[in-house]
Amino acid sequence: MLHLEHDDHEYGGVNMIDSKSVIYGLYCTCHQEDGVRYIGQTSKSVQVRFNTHLAVAAGHHGKSWVINWVNKHGGENIRYMIVERCGPDDLNDREEYWIAWFRSIKDDMVNVRSGGKQSRGHKRPQSAIDAMTGPGNPMWGKKRPQYVIDALQAGRKPITEETRAKLRAAHTGRKVTPETLLIMSAAQKLAKNTPEYLAAASIRMSGKKNPMYGVKLSDDVKRKISMSSPKSKLNEEKVRQIRLRRKRGESMKELAREFNVDPSAISSVVSGRNWSWVK
Predict the structure, then answer these.
(1) In the predicted model, is pLDDT for residue 147 greater than 60?
(2) Whether 254 and 131 share a structural domain
(3) How far is CA 104 from CA 36, 51, 216, 233, in A?
(4) 68 and 129 in one domain?
């Protein structure tokens, strides 16, 4: 790894040995041949700034190329190097210079912006967004290591009542567009059809975990449920016919074939287990 730190002890009248104004680079020890992948600046201790990168990545408090890159290779494999020490007034200019310099010799830098005085809230160009979407995202198709998952879970903080109140206030009266409703509905249907979702739902709703466990429904409620179901093939008149014809000796298999239901449904109707309110 080429060490780029300048040997000059003076820069713009500032003692460089004591200066904390630093341009630094991040690289990965498991891909040292790739060299520096990210350029940043700090007017504080570079070690503190480096630790902040690792903490943000481990807690997944934001989404950026550098965070994805750190998580992809693992924080324990990321190192920093001092590229240049300079005066605090020169940090922006020197950061822009080094980002441009590295981009001129390689095309895999994870800096999205050109550095310097660009303020927070900067909107990425569509080309940058497209480059981070799908296969262009460094985390595409990758599974996080267990230590990253553990760090994410440990870093989650419970939502306070104050935050909940703010969220409710922000969304009260908010109207969702028809297009958004369609997207949300399609996403929910797609998610609920996956084997993983169905298996998890089955576990969540089984036995005493089911909110209806031990609850007895009244005949009136049962009637409303049965009559409102779009999948129901029977109605009260058909149920009376089935019971009457079964008493006259017709087989359940014949009745099931005629009413286009399973023989078990005929058995439940005849025994009164289903449609019990029909007399």
Answers:
(1) yes
(2) no
(3) 13, 28, 73, 71
(4) yes
